Amino acid sequence: MKKRLLDKIRDRSLTVGVLGLGYVGLPLIAGFGEKKVKTIGYDINKEKVAMLKKGRSYITDISDAELKAVLPYFKPTTTVKDLNAADAILICVPTPLRKTKEPDIRFIMAALDIIKQLDYKGKLIVLESTTYPGTTEEILLPALEMSGKYKVGKDFFLSFSPERVDPGNKRYNIKNTTKVVGGVTKQCTQVSKELYEIAIESVHPVSSTRVAETVKLLENIYRSVNIGLINEMAQLCHRMDIDIWKVIEAASTKPYGFMPFYPGPGLGGHCIPLDPFYLSWKAKAYDFNTRFIELAGEVNGSMPYFVVDLLGEVLNKYKKSINGSTILIMGVAYKEDIDDTRESPAIDIIRLIEKKGGNVKYHDPYVEKLNVGSKVYSNISLTKVQLAKADIVLLITAHSNVDYKMLKDSKRPVLDTRNGMKKFRSKNIFTF
Ligand SMILES: NC(=O)c1ccc[n+]([C@@H]2O[C@H](COP(=O)([O-])OP(=O)(O)OC[C@H]3O[C@@H](n4cnc5c(N)ncnc54)[C@H](O)[C@@H]3O)[C@@H](O)[C@H]2O)c1
Q1: Can you give the pTM of this predicted structure?
Q2: Does some domain include residue 220?
Q3: Could you tell me if 182 and 265 lie in one domain?
C-alpha cells in the first residue's frame, strides 16, 4: 500500500481530495493544482461549490484567475462518493468553540463519517483542522480501525498537519511556509511528507500526531499571550500618558531578544481567540491550569471595553457623549486587507456602543454587510459628507486601501486603535 501511494506521489499521478473548501482548503487546492496534480474538493456548501465550478473564488487570497488556472485539474463537488477517487484526503473543516469555551469537534466527526462511507484502503488521511493534542489518535484512529479490517500504517495512513495559512499575508503563503507533519506511524509521516513536498517548499516531519497538534497550538498561544502582554502595556501606558507605539518602535531597534507585537481593539478571526482554549480544555484532563492562556484571554477580551471607554473619553473632550453621537467605524474585518469578520472585535465594540445609545455607521472596502446580533449593518462610502455627519471616527481595522489623508483633512476626531494614522498624527487624532 505504501509503495503504491508513494509511486503515485512521486510520479504525480495521484489525486488529492480536500474536505472543506474554506480559507484553508481552497489554497491547498490551488497549491496542488499549480503543480498540475488532480484535486477533488468536497464541501457541503452548495453555493460555494457552484461558484468554484464557474471559476469564481470567495477567498481574497485566491483570485478568480488563479482558480481558473487550476480548474482543469480540480473537481469541486458536493457528492461524497466522488472522494473515492482521491488517494489522499485532507480534512479542513471548522473547529469552533462552544460558548463554554469547550472544543466543538462536530465538524471533524462529520468529516470522519464521510470518510467511513468511502473505501479508504490505501489512502492517506490528514487532519489539518486546528484541534487539541490527541484528536487524531483518540478520535480518528479508533474510528478508522474500528472494523478491524484496516490497520494504520499498513492499509491506510493517518497524520496530522497543522495549517499555518495567514490570510492577507502577501509575503508568506502555503508554498513558502514550512509544513509540519506528524503521522501515527513512521510510514504515515513519510507519505504525508512526500505528499506535501509536491506543493510546499519545505516540510518538517515530527515524531507524532500529538507533537504536530501541539505545534499549532503553541504558535497561536504564543501570539495570544504576547498580544495580551502588549494590550496590557497599552492600557497602562494610556493611564501613564506614555505613547505605547513609540515605546514599541524604539524597543524594536534591539536586534535580539525582542519581537514586536502591537496592541489593538481585541482579538479576532477563527484562530487566535479560539485555539488556545482547545489546549486549556485538554489540560484540565491532566489536572493542569493553563494560566497564561486564561490571562491572555482575559486581557485581550477586555480590549473592546477599553476602546469604548476611550471613545467616551475622547467624545468628552468635545463636550459630547456616546449617547446620541454618530460614530463612524473604519474597518470591521478582524484584520487589515481581508474580508473575514469572524470574531471581529468590531462586532463587540458596535454592540457596546449601541448599548450606550450611540449611532453606528461603518466603512470597510472589503465588507458589504455586517451582522451584529439581529441587526444588519451596510457598508457606507467614505465621503466628505459622511465624515461631516460623524461626531467621531473609530479606526478598528487599518486596511491599506483607505484614504487616511482624507480622514485627517476632515478634521473629525479620530480614535485610532491600530496606529493606522501614524503618518497623520495631529491634535484630533487620538490613540491608546
Ligand atoms: N482561516 C485561517 O486563517 C486558518 C489558519 C490556520 C488554521 N485554520 C484552521 O483550519 C480549519 C478550517 O478553517 P477555515 O478558516 O478554512 O474554515 P472555513 O469556515 O473557511 O472553511 C471550512 C469549510 O468546511 C466546510 N464544511 C463544514 N462541514 C463540512 C463537512 N461535513 N464536509 C465538508 N465540508 C464541510 C464549510 O462549508 C466550509 O466551506 C479550522 O480548524 C481552523 O481553525 C484556519
Answers
A1: 0.93
A2: no
A3: no
